[in-house]
Amino acid sequence: METNRLIIVAVGGQGNLLASKVLGEAALLSDVPIRMSEIHGMAQRGGIVESSIVFGDASSPLITDGEADVLLGFEPSETLRALPRCSKRTKIVTNTAPLPPFTVAIGQGVYPDIEDMKKIIKQNTAFLMAFDAMKLAKKAGSPLTMNIVLLGALLKSRGVSFTREIMEEAIKRVTKPAFTEMNLKAFDLGFSVEV
Fold this sequence. Notes:
Elements: E1 4-11, H1 16-29, E2 34-39, E3 48-55, E4 70-73, H2 76-81, E5 91-95, H3 102-105, H4 114-124, E6 127-131, H5 133-140, H6 146-156, H7 164-174, H8 180-191
Parallel strand pairs: 1-4, 4-5, 5-6
Antiparallel strand pairs: 1-3, 2-3
């Protein structure tokens, strides 16, 4: 089976780990071999959280510089920061709603311009799908569904090769029953984003 290397980058609290679990469940439901690795860093203080997921035949979950086939970014500056992990063949799906770090809030840093970031990413990769996932999450019923919105867009972009039905079943199995319908709506909204 062909290997597909996916990196998910986010800031603590954005739901990266739940998204990884949904993708892991989808792989299990599809009988796709999977290897996963997570870096939590300073997640509880708004720091980076990164998941590496390798679908298919592989002996390690590690994804080194230039090896990512797909990058899923929950926060635009973290997507830009992860660009060295990508190559000219990488597909990127990213949220454009910024979550500036504390240093920007206290005036000790400057948040990069979103349009400039998109230009840099487009110049260095094969494909970019960039949209305001937070806006769609709010439309689904909660900002906390942004991660699931992005999973819908990831599937639409063909960044992963699961069927829609498998992804929806994985969401049902991994998310709490009280939030399942809202998450399925979020997934649908993400899947509806134009490629």
